[in-house]
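User: I've been trying to design a sequence by hand for this structure and keep getting stuck. Would you show me what you'd pick, starting by listing the structure so we're on the same page?

Assistant: Good idea, let's start from the same input. This is the structure you sent:
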């Protein structure tokens, strides 16, 4: 009897466990390769796990809502198709009792060894079989990502790859071998606190009581934890963005025609933020016990509002290596992926500094909460026309200018007012003196 272990996949470098939020199958169900088995959740990202093999669900070892460590066997599939929910004595560790004298290690067939699924740069899941064929036929990752999948939710199956090979004129069918997507725990933090208990709740007739969603509970935990860990201080400065506004008005139509995406003000402010973080690397940091870790990479988090009054913060990896155009495109890609639930675990982990755009809601000023384990967060306010005093060669004059507030919340454990204030002042200067590079 050939059994295949379904293991809890590793969804990111810092992810050590995941919650089973839903089973799509039950014991004794017949499944085909690529059929959905279950849905798991790590922090804010939900991922559907398909079956890498065909067979019968022999045993489900964990129930819905249970938290399971990465690498643990969570289900067993009988690839011989003999449905029997009582065959063997399986335990939650995934081990099966063997007859006396048997050497399970020596007899374990190659297909029994659990191999995790593959998630590509395009946030697509590929079964080990599909990955194996692609490797044997020298199909590049970009080509694999371009294949239209016929499976559930557009998942690429074996027949899709073989069809691609036929069309490419290099078909070499591979044998079907049954082989082989957070809350990022803050550095140096203990366990994540639960949502704080409030005073005894009283309701009156007509009141509506709404149960928090899982995401809302997680957001609440994040906010409470951050306020408990970091000593929050907020500085504010008003900057003149007239130059930025005029430049955008001049190039926005040409930019959209050329690049296929809208040019908003935010990428300009993100580029200026990256420049200022390079000038003040102590702001691009985290804290572990009594150590300050200055981050080499600048992974710029962008707060994205979601339906249902929820929020998620994907981050632009290595933002310092991107041009203004590159930042614009990547920002749009992440925002679209967030709103269509296509973010991968790596998209929301590893951030080093976060920017939140209060201005998108026409808010002027805000005091955001630090996104742990970072040590600072920037809030960008709405751009509004205001009268301002300008110094000219003929004397002071009052003119209409485009103004905007910046708010920097920082961790006073390691960032003093002088450093926080200097960073914010320099950021304002960088924005006011903005000049787009040639070609952007």
């Amino acid at each position: 009897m050939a059994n295949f272990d379904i293991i809890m996949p590793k969804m990111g470098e810092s992810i050590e466990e995941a919650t089973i939020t839903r089973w799509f199958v039950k014991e004794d169900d017949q499944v085909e390769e690529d059929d959905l088995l279950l849905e798991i959740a790590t922090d804010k990202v939900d991922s559907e796990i398909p079956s890498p093999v065909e067979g019968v669900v022999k045993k489900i070892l964990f129930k819905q809502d249970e938290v399971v460590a990465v690498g643990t066997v969570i289900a067993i599939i009988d690839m011989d198709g003999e449905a029997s929910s009582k065959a063997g004595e399986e335990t939650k560790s995934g081990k099966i009792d063997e007859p006396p004298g048997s050497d399970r290690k020596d007899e374990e067939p190659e297909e029994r060894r659990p191999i995790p699924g593959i998630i590509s740069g395009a946030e697509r899941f590929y079964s080990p079989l599909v990955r194996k064929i692609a490797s044997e036929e020298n199909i590049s990752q970009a080509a694999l990502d371009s294949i239209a999948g016929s499976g559930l939710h557009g998942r690429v199956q074996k027949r899709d790859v073989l069809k691609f090979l036929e069309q490419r004129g290099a078909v070499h069918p591979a044998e079907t071998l049954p082989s082989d997507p957070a809350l990022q725990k803050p550095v140096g933090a203990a366990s994540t606190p639960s949502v704080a208990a409030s005073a005894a709740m009283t309701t009156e007739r007509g009141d509506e009581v709404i149960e928090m969603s899982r995401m809302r509970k997680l957001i609440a935990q994040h906010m409470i934890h951050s306020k408990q860990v970091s000593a929050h201080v907020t500085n504010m400065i008003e900057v003149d963005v007239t130059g930025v506004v005029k430049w955008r008005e001049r190039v926005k139509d040409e930019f959209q025609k050329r690049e296929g995406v809208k040019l908003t003000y935010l990428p300009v402010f993100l580029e200026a933020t990256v420049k200022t973080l390079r000038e003040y690397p102590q702001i691009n940091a985290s804290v572990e016990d009594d150590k300050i870790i200055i981050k080499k990479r600048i992974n710029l988090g962008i707060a994205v509002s979601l339906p249902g009054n929820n929020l998620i913060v994907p981050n632009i990896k290595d933002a310092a290596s991107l041009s203004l155009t590159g930042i614009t495109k990547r920002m749009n890609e992440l925002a679209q992926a967030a709103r269509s639930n296509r973010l991968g675990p790596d998209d929301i982990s590893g951030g080093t500094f976060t920017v939140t755009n209060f201005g998108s809601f026409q808010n002027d000023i805000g005091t955001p909460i630090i996104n742990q384990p970072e040590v600072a967060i920037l809030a960008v306010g709405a751009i509004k026309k205001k009268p301002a005093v300008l110094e000219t060669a003929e004397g002071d004059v009052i003119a209409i200018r485009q103004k905007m507030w910046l708010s920097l919340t920082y961790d006073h454990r390691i960032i003093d007012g002088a450093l926080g204030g200097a960073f914010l002042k320099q950021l304002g200067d960088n924005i006011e003196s903005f000049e787009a590079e040639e070609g952007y």
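That's my pick for every position. To get oriented when you compare it with your attempt: The longest strand covers residues 395-411. The two ends are 61 Å apart (CA to CA).
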